Structure formats: structure tokens, C-alpha cells
# Entry
Amino acid sequence: MIKNFLPTYCFDNIKSIDYDLLEKTGISTLAFDLDYTLISFATKFLDLETISFLDELKKKFKVIIVSNSPKKRLDKVFLGCDISYISRAKKPSTKRFRKVFQDNDNLNTCMIGDQLITDILFGNRLKMKSIYLRRVYKENILMRILNRNVDRFLFLLVRIRYPKRYKEIFGK
Ligand SMILES: [Mg+2]
# Structure
């Protein structure tokens, strides 16, 4: 169970990810979380830099956003962008994703996100590769109290249970 909270890799942000490595290991689809991965929660739109970065990635990978946010919000965030997304994904539940994706797509997919309890657990449950991103955006206080404390606790569990892997992934 605790193993499900171990990501395959850890990077600072979407730009520092080693996409060549992912390509070499057979990854053809990148599934991105939205909040605190691509944008901060308070942001209503994707910035141009992120849009063109995703456009570049789309030349090599299939790119999809898997977010727990409602459709209404995602429609606004991706207004005018050519990006597919799954709203109200209910991560770490895999039900919604399984409905949309074909049977074996998950094996060539890498889930990228900022939370162990949703993104990494979701990816591992679907036997995907997964990437944990270190804090990129400042969060509001409620987010910090609710989610980060859960994540902190999970980090501790993972560290105790898998000290070697932990060091390899997080480097400390
Ligand atoms: Mg997030």
C-alpha cells in the first residue's frame, strides 16, 4: 500500500522534467494534473509560456490533463487551447479515467502532479509511471493545512518503509 505513494521520478517543475528519458522508456502519453502543476489555484487561464511549452510536448507525446476540478473551470482555463482534459477525475479513483482511456494506454502513460495522495497514488493504481513535482506555486492557507500535512505524513511513511528508494527519488 505505502509503495503506491512512491513516484517513479521527482522533478522541480514541468520544465525540468527529463522528457527524453520518458520517451526512451516508452512513454507516449503525458497526463498532467492542473492545480499547482500547470497553474496556481487562483489562476483562471493558462499563461502563454505554458501553452507553448505544452504545444512543443505535443509534437512528441499525447498530452492530456487529468484534474479533479469541475468541467466549468477547465473549460475556462483551456479556452482557446487545443488540449484534451478529463474534469472531475476524482483522483485517486481510477474509474473516470478508465472510462475515457483504452485498456493499455495506462502502461505508456506518465502521470505528473504535485500531490502524493491524489496524483501519484492515481498513477500507481493504474500502473503508470509517475512524476512528483516539488512545490512550484504558492498555495492558499487551506490547501496548505489540508493537503500538505497529509502529503508530509505520507512522505514520512514512504521514507521509513523504503529509505533507499526514497533517497534515489528525492535525493535526500
Ligand atoms: Mg495539484
In short: Residues 33, 35-37, 113-115 surround magnesium ion (CB under 6 Å). The chain has a mean pLDDT of 90. The radius of gyration is 15 Å.
